Structures are given as C-alpha cells and as structure tokens.
Amino acid sequence: MSRQLISLNPDLRRLVEDGYDVSIVAGYLVLRDVPYLDGAIRVRRGMIASPLDLAGDRTVQPTHHIVWFAGEMPHGVDGTPLDAMAHHGTPRSLGRGLLVDRMLCSRPAADRYRDYHDLMTTFVEQLSAPASMIDPTVTARTGHVMVADGGRSCFAYLDTASSRHGIGRFSDMLSGLSVGIVGLGGTGSYILDQIAKTPVSRIHLFDDDRFEQHSAFRAPGAASIDDLREQRTKVEHFSGIYSKMHNGIIGHEMKLGPANAHMLDHLDFVFLAIDSGAGRRALVAEMERRGLPFIDTGIGIEQTEHGLTGAVRVTTSTPQKRDHVQNLNRIPTGSGIQSMYQSRAQVADMNALAAALAVIRFKKHFGFYLDLEREHHSVFQLDGAVMVNEDRVGTVS
Question: How is the chain split among helix, strand and coil, in percent rounded to 5?
Fold first, then answer.
C-alpha cells in the first residue's frame, strides 16, 4: 500500500524523485536520514513522521503543521536548543514499530502547507540548516530506493484515523487476530460494523438466515429497497458492505454448532449474538473446552404503560474467569424464555449499545483500552441508566 500510495500522488512521488528516503507506516508519511545537530554540535540523523490526510488513495492539503521526530533535541549551530519548534517530550510508539521522541511544530506563512512535499521539505530544511553549516556535504537526499511493501494490509485503504489521533500502538494490539461473529442479527451486525474498523486479520461471519425487511430496521446503515428485493443471506449482504473496507471478511452461510465446530479451530476470539438458548449452550461448552475467550450478548425489552423498559447484558468468558457462566447462570441456555434477556423484541439503539459494550470489552481484553475492573458480566438497565459490573477476575462465583 505504501508504494502504491506514493506512486499515485504527485506530492509524495516528488519526495522520492528528490532522493528522500520516504515510506508510509501506520498511517504516517515517514522521512528518514534527516541531518540535525545534537547538544554537542555533532551532526546526527533523525526521522520525521507526519500524519496523512487522505481522500481514499489521494492526498489532500494537510490540515496540520506538526510532525513527530525520532532523535535527540535538535540544536542550532551556537548550541541553543531549537525549542521554538521542538517540544520536549517522552518517547512514544505510533504503531507498527514506529518510535518517536518528540513533536516538532512549524506554522507556514500561508497558514497551511500546500501539500506533503511542502510540509516535509520545510521541516527537513529547518532541521538540516544548522547541520549543513558544520558539514556542507550532509543532506537528507540519500537517494534510497523505495522498496515494495512487505505484506498485505487488512484494510482496503489506509487507516488514517489511528495516525491522526496517535493511537497506532494500541491498535497494533488487535493486529493479526482472527475473530468470529456468530449471528448477524441486530447486535451481531453492529458488532461487525465496529470490528471491521479494527486491524484484526480475519473476521469470520456465521449465519444461515436471510436479510429480510425487518432486518433493515435493526442493522447499521440503510438498505435500499433493491437490496431487500434481492433477498440475499445476511452473510452475503454484510460481507458485500464491509469487504469494501476490510480485506479479511470471510462469510459462512451456516448455523455454527457441534457438527461444524472445527470452524472454531483458528479463531482467537468469538462474539455470540444469537437468541437460541440451546445453540448457546452447545457453543459455550465447545469454546470453554477449547479455551477460547468469548463474549455473549443479550437484550431484553418489556412494555409498560409509560413506555418500554429493558436491559442489555454483556457476559465475557476467558481462561482467567469462567465459573460465573455456569454457577450464576449468566448466559441463558434453556429452550424456553427464562429471563428478560431472551425477549425477542429488539430496537436498533439497544442492539448498537450491546454491540458497543461488547466490542469495548473485547478491546479491553487485548489491551487496547485500560482495564481496571476486569469485569466479566455487565448489565445496563435502561429505565435508570444504570450500569452494573460484576464477576471480576479473582472473585469466586
């Protein structure tokens, strides 16, 4: 993707033609071998990295005037720190092994840089000017040849959201995972909507139902009347949408159960979003046997004279905490309706909330979010807007 993006954009291509060592890493435009002076007035070389603003695979005019710098504090030829542009900071990871030490800031006279060639060369010149006064032969134009990318991205286009907000090192914690979503009804489809925006390697979808007219009213996006006329399966419908963004969508038009449990072999995590108690029971037992972490979701809605009320449940089971599932009956597995969590009435906002809570818990499990509670069972009560967290790691059920 790096080589293709650079070849498609004149401003990026011009940097290569000028002889700069450039690449695209974790959504950042990276330029290496930039000369600068350290505090001892010695010529050193550093790296600058700029967040990329893109419209698909085309660069747009940068909206910022900062870059990240890997190197010591740069100095002028008189030994004075360039603290008008270089901020003191602590080392941080931008993701994909991209380590930086501080931020550089330089606002152009025209308020915005024309393009990325203008932005990057401005910072190179400001850093290199003192170094060239000590050694006139030093240059950032090392003439390095751009090599082909190693590996295929899980995304159909570059993730500029993580780089824009500097959270790439946390996104990396989800990279390479293979995730299963069992059930593509209201909650399952919203789970897919959010997981498709993460760098997991594979997203396996399991469902044997069709996408019908009522499905459109509790699913993300807006299905057209032509979509409904086609009567596609849910797997086909949602795979077609999210494969436009994520390259790792793998659809299975089947009901997952004991007869095809081998489909779990290569999964790292599973979301259960089905309303069959018997189906849940078999899958829960199989995933526990395999040591798979998983999350099961449930929604219950009841009518009152003054409006609907209900609750959203998110139950997590990991190798660190499983006893609560059976001992406290946290996951309904009976054939009849045993609790409000098995009510079949659903509303899109409740589905979206269940999905969001489940995905947040998934991200906590893998370290994307800080996890202080380590809760494995949460219930949101609608009428009082109350969230209850229970079954923490270390507690006995």
Answer: 30, 25, 45
Distance CA 91, CA 103 (A): 10
362 burial (CB, 10 Å; 0-12 / 13-18 / 19+) is buried
- Give per-residue burial for 117-133: e unless 16+ CB within 10 Å, then b: bbbbbebbebbbebbbe
**Residue 75 corresponds to which tokens in the numbers above?**
């100095």
Assign residue 308 a region (left: φ > 0; alpha: ψ between -120 and 50; beta: otherwise).
beta
Nearest to 358 by CA among 175, 173, 190, 161: 190
Angular region, 60: left φ>0, alpha ψ -120 to 50, beta rest: beta
pLDDT tens per residue across span 39-84? 999 999 999 999 999 999 999 999 999 999 999 999 999 999 999 9
Measured CA to CA, the distance from residue 140 to residue 147 in angstroms comes to: 18
Q: What angle do CA 140, 124, 51 make, to 5 degrees?
A: 110
Strand 249-252 and strand 307-317: the pairing is unpaired
How are strands ordered across the β-sheet holding 102-105?
A: 21-25, 28-37, 43-51, 66-70, 102-105
The per-residue pLDDT for range 106-164, each reduced to its tens digit, is 999 888 999 999 999 999 999 999 999 999 989 999 876 544 454 567 998 889 899 88
Specify the pLDDT at position 148. 42
Tens-place pLDDT, residues 80-105: 999 999 988 889 999 988 999 999 99
Structure tokens at 33: 């071998």
pLDDT > 70: percent of the chain: 95
136: helix, strand or coil: coil
Quote the CA–CA distance of 85 and 103 in Å, as a whole number: 8
Enumerate domains of the chain plus CATH numbers. Answer: 2-164 (no CATH), 176-392 (3.40.50.720)
